[in-house]
Amino acid sequence: MGFLQPLGGYRNLKVYKITEIIYDLTYHFTHSYLTKPDRTIDQMVQAARSGKQNIAEGSKAATTSRETEIKLTNVAKASLEELLIDYEDYLRVRSLQRWDANHQRYIKMREYVRSEVFEKEYHKLMSRLNDEELANLCITLIHQATHMLERLIEKQQVQFLEQGGVREQMTRARLKYRDQHPPKDKDQ
To answer: What does the pLDDT look like over 40-51, one tens digit per residue?
Structure first.
């Protein structure tokens, strides 16, 4: 009888799975290549965590607020942008190479991270890659996740336009209920 649609299937979203990998790789990266008390460790881990957690929170919030879902999905995207800049800074200040779209390793890596094999094997890569390789891997994943989040936000906006917010859903449900259950006459 409820009018609220149960939502929150974020664990099935490809972008959520990628942000989970980004978090794992970032945790490993920061604890392997940065030294305490560098605040960048906490900043990068928190940005990676925020990218992942806001997808989950937004997905669950969608049951009662499409607006909150869109806002939190955008926060996830913004957090990943912050993390991207941290990786770029790491490479730049250490005079390490940032692989651009024409770099041979970037092209191969981009294709590899799109495969299902990558999702199952990325843990094995962590200890085999050096800091330059791992940073570029994370940059590649962040670009993919950001692209997916942009598409997700577009989809969420369309869903809002088509279905409305929870208040509109509540009003429609109440009007439908009234149509199906007219008030009983007191005289009968």
So the answer is: 999 999 999 999
Q: Give 4-25 pLDDT, tens digit per residue.
A: 565 558 888 999 999 999 999 9
Q: Where are the extended beta strands (E) located within the chain?
A: none
Token pair, residue 129, equals 């890659």
Determine the Cα–Cα distance for residues 68 and 70; give it in Å rounded to an integer.
5
Q: How far apart are CA 74 and CA 54, in angstroms?
A: 8
> Residues with Cβ < 8 Å from 94, sequence gap 6 or more?
131
Residue 7: per-residue pLDDT? 58
Q: Give counts: helices (H), strands (E), the chain.
A: 7, 0
Model pTM score = 0.84
Has residue 65 got a pLDDT over 90?
no
| Residue 82 confidence (pLDDT) | 98
Q: Which two tokens stand for residue 124?
A: 């094995």
Q: Estimate to the nearest angstrom the gap between the alpha carbon of 188 and the chain centroid.
A: 58
25 by Cβ neighbours in 10 Å (0-12 / 13-18 / 19+) ranks as: buried
Interatomic CA distance for residues 171 and 55, integer angstroms: 28
Task: Please list the alpha-helical segments (H only) found in 94-165.
Answer: 104-113, 116-126, 131-163
Q: Whole-angstrom Cα distance, residue 55 to residue 11?
A: 9
Could you tell me which of 87, 114, 110, 109 has the C-alpha nearest to residue 98? 87
Scan for tokens 């890569």, then name that residue. 125
